[in-house]
Every structure is written in structure tokens, then in C-alpha cells.
Sequence to fold (222 residues):
Amino acid sequence: GQNIDQPTEMTATEGAIVQINCTYQTSGFNGLFWYQQHAGEAPTFLSYNVLDGLEEKGRFSSFLSRSKGYSYLLLKELQMKDSASYLCAVLDSNYQLIWGAGTKLIIKP
Amino acid sequence: DADVTQTPRNRITKTGKRIMLECSQTKGHDRMYWYRQDPGLGLRLIYYSFDVKDINKGEISDGYSVSRQAQAKFSLSLESAIPNQTALYFCATQIGGEVDEQFFGPGTRLTVL
Fold:
């Protein structure tokens, strides 16, 4: 079966750095997405990776290793507004999006 | 104004009732999706449509039906609601290909008693 694993919850301190991991086992791979979802709100797009390596976008970076079935989202200079759930989603061989359950990130002052 | 809107935002209904959730978009996107989100689970795809004449079942289409009335409108119906359909429902749009980002509506919180 297809599976995406993310930690359920993480806690970090304002101003610090946090890494949210995502491992996947899917039938084929056509890219990996990260979305941010604040409580009670809609998911919003953060990044898309299809090639191995690190892509940086401001305070957020996303890394992909296709051979290891692994990605992470790196958030730097954490702000209270970064408290949210972070959803990992993989596009499989049929171009269907498989979603992880999300990681709830709690930022403490 | 929001690009993707959903109505109603909240709905409480009883088992056996028919209910329709509506989604409208002003983004001009051809692709539209309906998902449900349950605590501890990832988003699950119910139905999707790549244009007005195209309707496709997703992972969990049983108990649901959809209608794509126009490019801008995609409605989800529960013919006879049951309690395990209690969930947060999201509509999403996508401009073109599968690798493009999806734009989500604000969600409809549905409770079936």
C-alpha cells in the first residue's frame, strides 16, 4: 500500500530552527508537496520538489532524497505565526496526490 | 474577495437527509477537487473534475455524488447522510497540470447527527 509518515506533533521555540520530516512509500513518484494549514483554515502551498536536493524560499526550505523516500521541511527564525500543521503530499505514478496526516507544529515564546 | 468560496461554512444535519455543499471559484481554473479531512488522517479525495464534462471518482466516493455545473462551480452531494460523514470538507482548484499547486476553499464543517 501507499504510505506517508510524518510526526504527529512537534514543539519548537520562537526564533529557533525546526525540521519536519516526511518519509514515503508510494507506487511511483512524480513530486512531493508541502502545504501549511492553520487551525480551522485551508491548506496553502509552500513548496514542490521533484529533483533531489534543497530548495530555499525565504525562511522555509524543502529537501528531497528520492533514493531514501525522504523529505524534510526546514523552518528558520521561527515566528509565532508559524504555529500550524504542515502537510506532506506525494504525487504517485498515476499522478494522484497521497497526503500525510500532517505535523502539528507548536511554537513557544 | 476570496478566489475559492464554499457554502455553507458550517452545517448540522440529521442521518438520512440529503445535503449539498457548493464550491465556486473565480480563478478560471479547469481542475476542481473535493476532499474530506478527518482528525489524524490525511486529506482524502472524494471526486475530481478536469473540465465541465469530466467527472472522476476519488479514493472515497461511495455515498457521495458531484455536479460540475460550470467551469466555476463544483457541487458535492450526500444523498443520505450518515454520522461517519461528519468531517471537514474542502474544495480545491488547480490551474492545469498535476504538478501545479492546488488552491483550497475555506472548508465546510459538516456534522451528521
Notes: DSSP finds no helices and eleven strands in chain B. Chain B has a mean pLDDT of 95.
